[in-house]
Amino acid sequence: MMNQRVLLAIFACCMLIVASCAPRDGDDIGSPVFNGTTPEGEIVEPPISTLPAPTISAIRVPVDEFSIQAAVDRAQPGDLILIEPGVYTEEVIISTPDVVIRGRDRNTVFIDGIHSLTTGVSVVANGVAIENLTVRNYLGDAISVGDPASGGLIDSFRALHVTTSNTALSGIALDNVINAEVRQGWLSGHGDAGVLVSNCEQCNTLITTTLAEFSARGFAVVGANQGVSITSATSRNNRAGVVIEDGDGRPTSGVDIAASIIQNNGFSQSPVSNPAFDVSFGVGIHVGGSTSTRVIANRITGNTTAAVLLGQNINNTSTNPQAALVERNTVLDNRTSDIVLAFQAASPDPNLCIRENGTASITPPEAAGAASCESSTAAPDFEWVPGSHDSIPYQNGPLPPEIDGLVEADSAPPVPAGPVILPNPAEALVPEG
Fold first, then answer.
1. How far apart are alpha carbons 158 and 384 in whole angstroms?
2. Contact 124/94 with Cβ under 8 angstroms?
3. Which burial class, exposed, middle or buried, applies to 112 when counting CB atoms under 10 A from its CB (0-12, 13-18, 19+)?
4. Residue 20 half-sphere exposure, CB side, CA atoms within 13 Å?
5. Which of 106, 127, 194, 359 minimizes the number of CB atoms within 10 Å of its CB?
6. CB-based burial of residue 268 (10 Å sphere; 0-12 exposed, 13-18 middle, 19+ buried)?
7. Who has greater pLDDT, 11 or 156?
8. What is the pLDDT of residues 328-351, one digit of tens each?
């Protein structure tokens, strides 16, 4: 039986056909394409770089190898692959461990699916790092990390100064990956999530100093057990800001959202690959089931339906959240509700704790006592009723702006990905507005 992500990719392809006559405001496929041929099959010469020669030893594309995949196939563990500015229409598969893939300029090195290829970069090896480039315009994920064919665990991955845009599924999808780190990312226009973390045990995964926008979900954690931290990140102008939920048959626990800006979510001019995602439409942070999710010291503002929703997962296959903590958040100007407890047939949870969130109100009001951090009363039944909302084809999303990249791309030694240290959410401070 096909898994859900394959079905979503098929759905996205169908949506692409339906949308093929629509104006493409965000696809930006008019740039010269370099992978040896144009999209029409005409042979082209390698681009001539205006950058000075790099000072570090590397396998250079297209100087030493004509394509990124050829450079990856040549690489040994610990090698640096350095990519000249250009548009590379490839599906890159990285199966050699501890390789560092780096663009010389984040804003002019494009790995581009031109809306006909499925996955930009597939990582099936430990210790891989991807740095300082843009991946865009794919029918699936921009970057997929995991080995679904074997079901094997991937240990250590890093995305640093990476931009992803306009894909039918996720910007960065981490499936059964531990010690993963996403820093200085800008993720825009995805039909699933900017970053999706799923199916890991002792995940030890950090998403920080990263912005997700114009997607179905800014950040999503599904079926992940222990050690996922979304800290000092921003999720804005998505359909839903952050979704932490149990997977179908796979629980989620130990997720922290701290010191982050969750802003103006409920944006219908964004793509969505799965209609069920819109259960969370307009919600800043949706905790769907899960155990010991902590929402601490965030600025949650301007979301259209709720700042924080505690309830079941999007498929209604989970229990209510257990031992959730929502504290020290600044909750302002959310248009319908602040903190919603949409519990079904609840039993008392003395570890449910909602406190010190300024003037934020709880819906329904009768649930406030059940959330008092030491209560022996149950939250009353309350049904969350999602609405229906417009969407756009993924390829019509706006393009990200030029963004600061890796300062020493031509000289910094390659450092493979390794163990990740997670921050302590107790030390988190609410970010400035």
1. 37
2. yes
3. buried
4. 9
5. 359
6. middle
7. 156
8. 999 999 989 999 999 998 889 999
Q: Are 33 and 87 in contact (CB under 8 A)?
A: yes
Provide the token pair at 384.
């969350």
Tokens of 195: 């970053």
Residue 394 tokens read as: 């993924």
**pTM of the complete model:** 0.91
Q: By three-state DSSP, how is residue 348 classified?
A: coil
Domain count, the chain: 1
By DSSP bridging, strand 186-190 and strand 86-88 are: unpaired
Number of H helices and E strands in the chain, helices first, is 2, 30
Q: Please give the average per-residue pLDDT across 8-24, as a whole number.
A: 39
Residue 198, SS3 per DSSP? strand
**How many Cβ atoms are within 10 Å of 378's Cβ, its own excluded?**
17
pLDDT in tens, 266-297: 999 999 999 999 999 999 999 999 999 999 99
- Please check whether residue 212 is in contact with residue 193, taking contact to mean a CB–CB distance below 8 angstroms: yes
How confident is the model over 131-140, as pLDDT tens digits? 999 999 999 9
Q: Which residue has the higher pLDDT, 38 or 233?
A: 233
> Considering only CA atoms, which of 270, 269, 271, 267 is closest in space to residue 282?
267
188-202, 205-219, 286-300, 367-381: which has the minimum mean pLDDT? Answer: 367-381
CA distance 218 to 189: 10
- The answer to whether residues 286 and 244 touch, using CB atoms and an 8 Å cutoff, is yes
User: Which tokens belong to 256?
Assistant: 């922290």
- With CA atoms as reference, report the closest residue to 305 among 325, 286, 289: 286
Coil, strand or helix: which one is 53? coil
- Cα–Cα distance between 104 and 77 in angstroms, integer? 20
pLDDT attached to residue 401: 93
User: Which of 200, 354, 386, 380 minimizes the C-alpha distance to 280?
Assistant: 386
Strands (E), 348-420: 353-355, 362-363
How far is the first Cα of the chain from the last one, in angstroms, to the nearest whole number? Answer: 47
Identity of the amino acid at 318: S
* 91 pLDDT more than 60: yes
Per the structure, the complete domain to which residue 368 belongs is given by: 4-31+145-427
Residue 106 lies in a domain: no
The SS3 assignment for 371 reads helix
Q: Is residue 184 part of a domain?
A: yes
Token pair belonging to 414: 């390659």
Does the residue 17 lie in any domain? Answer: yes
